[in-house]
Amino acid sequence: MQDDAKPVANNHEPSIHLYAEHLQNIRTLSIQASLSGLTNQETYAKLSADGSLLILQHEGQSASIRLPISLGHHSDATLTIPAAPTKDLTFRLKVEERIGEQNVLAVNGVSGDFVVPWMSGDLSTETQILCAECSTVFLAHGKVSQWKDLPSEGWAEMMEFWHCHKPDDPHDHSRNHGSDVANAGRGFAVNSRLATRAGIALLGPLDILLAREDCQHIQTPYNNFYDARNAGVSLALAMPHTTTSRSPQRTNLECQTCHAVVGILDSVTGGYKLHKPQLAVATSVTTLPMKYPQEQWLSCLLLATAESQGVRRLLVHNSPTTDSQTQNLVLHIWLFAPDILMSSSAAKTPEPKRVARILYRPGGPEELGRLGGMRASEGELELETKEWLALGALLKDSAGLLPETARRLGGWNVGLLGRFTR
Questions:
Q1: Which helix (DSSP H) or strand (DSSP E) does residue 184 occupy?
Q2: What phi, psi does 246 have (nearest 5°)?
Q3: Which of 354, 348, 346, 317 is nearest to 407 (CA)?
Q4: Which of 1, 7, 48, 356 could bridge 53 with an S-S bond, Cβ 3.0-4.6 Å?
């Protein structure tokens, strides 16, 4: 990945490759077709009678895709093949919203919002949390009575900063103490610090912060919270991935059964911060545990980080390590089109897919030393080395969904990452 970040193409390219995406902001359906040979008089493209399929025939072969959005029974769209022979075709069709029809975005499961699984509205006292790898139970049914969403990724860090730097308060400290006790009861703060309390879970986009006494079958190298603090573990509060390259080494939490890393020990609260991508969750006693693909969690992480830092571009690097054999890995990410609905004839299933279109290119380890002077338009994201490699592999593999001419744009590689849908 670091040496050669060009997209990986399928060694057996289809003779007809179709790709379509719904450009929501301009109400346009963009269709691209890549052919193995030049177009001729036998080449033609058409829509199905109900406007839901595109069919293209060329040199005796036919291919079709289900469009990301149906154009309706009365679509008058025409698909004209250029007179000059070409291997690459492009069509743009206007999408009209008709009176009385359901919103086209809602029909296709895309409402433009940022979907994050396992927030407070999804969970209850019956919720159970398990290891995604081996199904060992970390949180039993009934252990948590209240689930609370953290306001934002940076909220807890700001609370910690205020606690350390707030001015002296000459007013009635007894009254303030009573307020702090009330805040602790809500599970949010003690003297303006984030706090954990038995029976209360705090939820971020990618993490669940739990009191240690509520959890089971989780182990850490340290005997207690104070040993961990003395060892210099990270003070990251809202998400484990947003620490900078200058952050101290974190203390991992492991599943006692399969030894998978499932979170980190939070050094401020002493609680267990479990990473959602490493978990399976049963929302009630009658439902089976659910877990989601790493691809969706990584796109969720990129989107949440970009939103919290107010940017569209991120410098993504791996975590610092004491292992001299581990390289500093750097990738520039540009969330070029964060929310589109696409279809591809190369996809495993015919259903349209909600994705983020991402531009990416490799960076060098020397850029990590310049993070403090980065342009305000580029944020930072730190991943474990395993996650960094997975992100790179997913982006490269996704190039196979795109026609060959769409895999590069202005010096960037183009990739797609699936998003969560409702």
A1: helix 173-186
A2: -95, 5
A3: 346
A4: 48
Q: Is pLDDT larger for residue 155 or for residue 405?
A: 405
Beta-strand runs (E) in 120-251:
128-131, 137-139, 146-149, 189-190, 193-194, 200-203, 207-210, 218-219
What percentage of the chain exceeds 70 in pLDDT? Answer: 71
Note the pLDDT of residue 364. 83
CA distances from 161 to 138, 164, 187, 235 (A): 31, 5, 18, 11
Does the pLDDT at position 3 exceed 80?
A: no
**DSSP string spanning 257-313?**
TT--EEEEE-TTT--EEEEGGGEEEESSTTS--B---HHHHHHHHHHHHHHHHT-SE
Write out the two tokens for 8. Answer: 């990986």
Question: Cβ distance 98 to 69 under 8 Å?
Answer: no
* DSSP bridge partners of 318: 383
Q: What is the distance of C-alpha 376 from the center of its chain? A: 22
Q: What mean pLDDT do residues 37-63 have?
A: 90
Amino acid at 93: L
Start-end of H helices in 60-116: 104-107
What is the Cβ-side half-sphere exposure of residue 347, based on CA atoms within 13 angstroms?
22
- Measured from the Cβ of residue 72, the count of other Cβ atoms closer than 10 Å reads 17
3-state helix, strand, coil in the chain (%, to 5): 20, 30, 50
Give CATH 2.60.40 domain extents, the chain: 16-107
φ, ψ dihedrals at 181, nearest 5°: -65, -40
Instruction: Write down the CATH number for the domain with range 16-107.
Output: 2.60.40
Q: Are 203 and 150 in contact (CB under 8 A)?
A: yes
Percent of the chain's residues with pLDDT above 90: 52
The whole-angstrom separation of Cα 261 and Cα 112 is 33
Question: Which residues, in sequence order, are CB contacts of 393 under 8 Å at separation 6+?
Answer: 1
How many Cβ atoms sit within 10 Å of the Cβ of residue 134? 14
Q: Give CA–CA dist 298/419, Å, rounded.
A: 9
What's the N-to-C CA distance of the chain in angstroms?
33
Strand pairing report for 146-149 and 200-203:
parallel
d(CA 413, CA 358): 8
pLDDT, tens digit (0-9, with 9 covering 90-100), for 353-385: 999 999 999 988 777 766 555 566 889 998 888
Nearest Cα residue to 337 out of 235, 417, 252: 417
Alpha carbon distance 43, 78 (integer Å): 14
